[in-house]
Amino acid sequence: MIGSQDLVVGLVIVLVLFGAKRLPELAASLGKSMKEFKKGVSEVGAEEPARPPGPSPIAATAPRNCPGCMTPLDPAWSHCPRCGAAAPGEAPKDQESR
Ligand SMILES: [Zn+2]
């Protein structure tokens, strides 16, 4: 039968084990350790620097659009396959016309 009597017995056992005088100390040390734990956690969080927004890899391969028909051009293409217009930006020189 679990009743209030068992609770009292358990409490008495705890008091006997730790001592009535040490109980507040136990609670105090527990609270102190918890406080220090939280402090350490916050310090760790503060030490960790926020990730700087580095250069996005997408910028390196920025999609180009054909100035004529706005067709998305592949970086390797020098001319638009649809209308034949020269691709904007750094287009490789066409040496076939030589
Ligand atoms: Zn085009």
Number of helices: 3
Mean pLDDT: 77
Order of helices and strands: HHHEE
Radius of gyration computed on alpha carbons = 36 Å
Uncertain regions: pLDDT < 50 for 5+ in a row? Answer: none
Helicity range of the residues?
A: 40-55%
**Biggest β-sheet description:** 2 strands, antiparallel
| Main β-sheet, spatial strand arrangement | 1-2
Oligomer: single chain
- Give the bound compounds: zinc ion
Which structural class matches the secondary elements? mainly alpha
Beta strand count: 2
Could you say which overall geometry the principal axes of the C-alpha atoms support? rod-shaped
Query: Span from first to last CA?
Result: 103 Å
How much of the residues is beta strand, in percent? under 5%
How does this structure look, described?
The protein is mainly α and 98 residues long. It has a domain at 4-47. It has 3 helices and 2 strands; from the N terminus they run H-H-H-E-E. A two-stranded antiparallel ribbon has the order 1-2. Strand 1 and strand 2 form a beta hairpin. The N and C termini lie far apart (103 Å). The model has no long low-confidence stretch (mean pLDDT 77). Bound molecules: zinc ion. Residues 66, 68-69, 71, 80, 82-83, 85 line the site of zinc ion.
Q: Which labels suit this protein?
A:
single chain; 98 residues; mainly alpha; 46% helix; 4% strand; rod-shaped
